[in-house]
Design brief:
CATH superfamily: NAD(P)-binding Rossmann-like Domain
Low-confidence stretches: none
Shape: globular
Number of domains: 1
Radius of gyration: 18 Å
CATH class: Alpha Beta
Strand order of the largest sheet: 3-2-1-4-5-6-7
Number of helices: 8
Distance between the termini: 54 Å
Order of helices and strands: EHEHEHEHEHEHHHE
Strand content: 15-25%
Largest sheet: 7 strands, parallel
Helix content: 40-55%
Oligomer: single chain
CATH topology: Rossmann fold
Amino acid sequence: MTPNTSKIALVTGASRGLGRSTALALAQAGVDVVITYRGQAAKALEVVREVERHGRKAAAIQLDTSDTASFPAFVGRLRESLMASWSREQIDFLVNNAGVGLAAPFSQSTEEMFDQLMAVHLKGVFFLTQSLLPVIADGGRIVNLSSGLTRFSLPGYAAYAMMKGGIEVLTRYLAKELGPRGIAVNTVAPGAIETDFGGGAVRDNANLNNMIASQTALGRAGVPDDIGPMIAALLSDTHRWVNAQRIEASGGMFL
């Protein structure tokens, strides 16, 4: 089998929302995609088929990013998939997108909630990226997902924003330590987006949606396709000199 020379991206949590939009935008840009999903296998396969309709190769692998003990087995399955479909051993891009939305006032935030957020958004990203280092090609790129909530503050998101703040610090350290391998690492920080994240509040709560629109320079809440193509662009060669940056994509929220 002839080795595949296409770029390959791994996008976590890509069965829906921002991850799905990112996977499809990458496919449209000529990049092959491996996506992960936690429980929605049918939706993940739909994304695979959509990527293939754009003429790119795709694969879906189950992964719970909060379960660090499962990471070695996941990397093994990834390597098998890469060899089977691409005759390659490495990916070019990693997008740490998988997340869970939990919100509560500081006074009512439980230790269980805190631990769940930390497991997915901070510990999981740290150790999954570490596990994947041998699988990321030199000269590759990593994008970590943060949030506009690290710049502005809204009641109920203290724990979530705290984890995302840690991701922004981690991004700078990764950029420094992986620089000798030519790997650039950046943070993308979306504003409020209309998805099912956090129970779909931004999408389904009209009062919240209107409030966000009124506080956003471009006059509306965001949608997934405001973010996915931006991430795909950041991973392209046209942005090869962008490194260790926090790039907010919020339409000008809370200026």
